[in-house]
Amino acid sequence: MLKLYDDELCGDSYKVRLMLGLLGVPYRRERIELYPSRQNRTQEFLAMSPLGRLPVLEADGALLHDAHAILVYLARRYGDAASGQAHWLPLDDPLQLARIQNWLGFAAQLSAMVFPLRDAVLHAQSAPRRLPDIGTNESRTLLRVLDETLWFNEAAATPFVCATSRPTIADIACFVPVALLDEAEIESIDYPAFRRWSRRLKRLDGFTTMAGVYAAV
Amino acid sequence: MADKHHVVESAWFALCGVDELDERAIYHTELAGHELVVWRAEGGAVNVWENRCPHRGVRLSLGHHRGDALQCQYHGWQFGTGSGACRFVPAHPQAPPPAVAVQTWPVQVRYGFVWTCLTLPGELPPFTPIEELENEASPGAAPAQPVRLRAVAIDAASDTVQHALADYRFDYTGFDAWQTSDCVAFEVAPHAVMIEQLDEAAHRVVFLVQPAREGRTYLHGIALGPFAANQRLAVLRHHQQRLNALRDALEQQSAYQERVNRHDIADMPQPDARSLVRSTPGQPAVLQQSVSKPVSVLSSGSGTAVYSGEHHEANLAFTVHLSRSGQTVNVAADVTVLHALRAHGVEVPSSCEQGVCGTCRTRVLQGTPLHLDDFLTPPEKAAGDCMMVCVSRAVSSTLTLDL
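C-alpha cells for the assembled complex are given below, as produced in the milestone run.
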C-alpha cells in the first residue's frame, strides 16, 4: 500500500491527499508535524527528503518528493481509461501536455507566495521578508491571470485551467493555493471565477477537505 | 469594512451579471465600502445582502446556498430569501428561530445585471433607465444578444476610471489587438458611459461603473450587437485586452500619485494614462453627455443620502432609570448602556454587542434614545419606544428603561 508522509495543515500535502481521494486510491498516512515540532528537520526525515520538504510518497519501492511530481505519478499510475480517470493527465495531445506543465509551474509560483504568508498568519510567525510585495503586486498579477483564464475557459465551455472539459492535475495544483487565500489573508473578492471553478472541483466524487477548506453542498 | 457614517451616493449601481448567479453561486462584491453577497433563490428571487452573519459576524460568502436560504459556515444559522430573517438554528432545532435578520438591500434586475442602491426604504430613488440598453433588450430589436464583458477590477478611484473611459478605443475589424478606430464617449447615465465608433458600423459598448471602495472600482461592460455566435468570444477577448491596458495605465498612474503624495520620488517621469491607452493621437477625447439622457439632474450632489451623520451627542454621559427595580445607573461617556447595567448587576440578554443581532432590544418608557444600531427599522427608530442597549445611547440626559 502507498505510504504518504504528510502534515494535515501543509498545502502541498493536501494537493496529494486530494488527488488520492479523487482517484479513490487507499493509502497509509505517516504524520510529520511541521509546526511547532519541526519533525521534517529530524535526521530520519532528512534521510528520506534531503530538503526537509513535505509531502513524500513511498510507492513502488521508491520515495517520491515534490507534490506536483507525485500528482504526475498518481495520475498515470492510477488514472487509466478503464476507470474513466485518464483526463487527469492526458498524454496523447502534445499541446495539452505543454499546457499542463505550464500551469503546474504557475501553481508552484502561486503556492510559493500563498503558503508562506498563510504559515505566518496561522503560526503568528514573523512575516516573510518580502511581505509587502507578495501581498499586493506579485500575487495580484498571478491571481488576475488565473481568474481571467478561468473566466474565458468557462465562456468557451472548457471550464478548467488548461481549457479542458474535465479537470487535470493542474487544476488540483492551482486549487489548493486558491482555497487557502483566506487563511493567508489575501482577498479573493476580485476573482469571482475562482468560486465557480472551486465549486466545480468540490463537487467531484472523492473530493477531500482539509482544515479551512469546506466541501460544497 | 468602511464605516457607515459616510455619505453614499443614493443611486442604483450594477453589481454583477445575472448569469454569475447560476449554479447556486454566492457572489461576493463590494459597493462604497459595504461588503455584499448577491444570490438567487430557487424560486428566482435575487437577494443583495450585507456579507455578514448577524450572529457572530462571519462572512456569509463563506457559507452555503440552501436553495431558498443562505447558511452561515460558522454555526449553521440559516437566513431566508427576501427578508433575510433567521429561520433555523441547528443548535436549537425545536426552538423558534431568534428574531434576527441579515441586513438586506433593494434589488433590481435590468439589462442582464443585478443592481442595488444603498439607501433605506422610503428614500429609494427611482431607477434611471439607460435607453441605449432598453432598445437593445426590447423584443422587436436585433435578434442577437448583446455580449456582457468580463468585469474588471481596477485599483483606482471610480471617477478617475469613468473619466478615463473617454479615451477608450476598440475595433472589431479583424479584432487586431492594437488597431483602433476613432470613438466618441457619451455619459448615458450618472455611472454609465457609452463608447461609439465613429464609422459606418457605429459599434457601441456601454460601461457601468461600480465604486467598490476608496481607490477600487469594478467596471462592467456590454458590447451591443448584433454579433454572430462565433464572433462573441473574439469580442470578449478584444475588450478584455483593451480593459487590461486601461487598468494597468490607471494603476500605474495612481501608484505614481501615491508615491508623489508620500514624497518618495522627485524625478520620476509621470506615466500618462492617455498615451498608454490610445493609439490614435490627435483624436479629441470628449466625454459627452448623451442627448437622449441629460444627466445633470442626477449626477450632482443633490442625489445623495446621509446614512447617519456625525452625532456630537454620541459620546456624552447620561443617566438611566430602571422602572422595575427603581435603580439609577450613570452611563459614562465611553461606556455602553449594556456594560454600565452589567456593572450594576443588571443582566440584559445580548449576543453580538454590535447593534446587529437584536437580542438586547429593550423597551424605553421615557426619554429619547440615540439609535446607533443596524437592527431597528427606521419607523421603529422614529417611534423611540425601544433601543439596542449594546450600542445605542441617549439624546436626552436621562432615559427610563423597562428593566
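Chain A is about 50% helix and 10% strand. The interface with chain B takes residues 144, 148, 151-152, 155-156, 182, 188-190, 192, 195-196, 199, 214, 216-217 of chain A (CB under 8 Å). Further analysis is deferred to the final report.
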